[in-house]
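#help-structures

NK: newbie question. if I give both the sequence and a SMILES, will the prediction place the ligand too? trying with zinc ion
OV: yes, paste both and it writes out the complex. here, I ran yours:
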Amino acid sequence: VEVCLGVDVGGSKIAAGFVTRDGDLLRHEWIATPRSEDPEELFDALGTVVGRLGAHEPDPGRGDSEASDRRAVTCGIGCGGPMDLEAGTVSPLNIPGWRGFPLRARVRALTGLPTALDNDAKALALAEGWVGAARGRRNYLAMVVSTGVGGGIVLDGRLVHGASGNAGHVGHVIVEPDGRPCACGARGCLEAEASGTAIAAVTGRPAAEASEEVVIRCGQMVGRAVASLVSALDIDLVVVAGSVALGYGVPFFAAANEELRARACLSFTRTATIVPAGLADKGPLVGAGAVGWTGSGATVLGVVR
Ligand SMILES: [Zn+2]
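OV: that's the protein plus ligand as structure tokens.
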């Protein structure tokens, strides 16, 4: 079976796995992202996790039939932004050791596979539209509310890239005009108010231990940002992933939807809803797989199965 090697690069871990043409995630591995300023040490970690997967060599020692007839034909990378999609270089806010790092070319050299790169939240948007909670939908926003806040926009059945490939940075929609300073340099961005990092900084505890009050405020901030976005984009579905949002669960989604309904009052925004992502922790790697398959000319959105 032909598979795509998906690689997901995040601030806390680097994961790699094989994704089939139908969006199934097969064998996968992960490694902690080194807390290093050395770009090569970071890339070595990526090489280690890909090596463990046996991506660029056969698996003679493995008896399973899946491994013996599996063949990686393409590679897709999801990575934190911002990035220069044309150049294939990344400068993730949460990985200070990589600034203008030529990730696409380096992974291509490592694996020998045709390699495509995109923002991790845009990759997740592809995954959710392919085999997740937005399957079959032509207009939606996928968001990640985790240590940071990211997003990917699909309009008219297509992933939106924008002038520099960075469309969907919804974490930097302003939700509190006089709010906390953001890593981007602005103030009161959604990411500075509702990300896991922001919640931990404000409460002095890990985001997972937040009080009900903090959970509800986090949902309200997300709903507030979404209210502006659905009006601007004419989107009726918002799919939210990420450890913070999914960890908070029902009260978070109730607060987000209540805030959305209170603030999005146009006729075409009244039916918009915010729902949990469908792929949970598989989303990032399935998304990287979607980036790879899309890069090789395949279609993942709007495919009826
Ligand atoms: Zn910001």
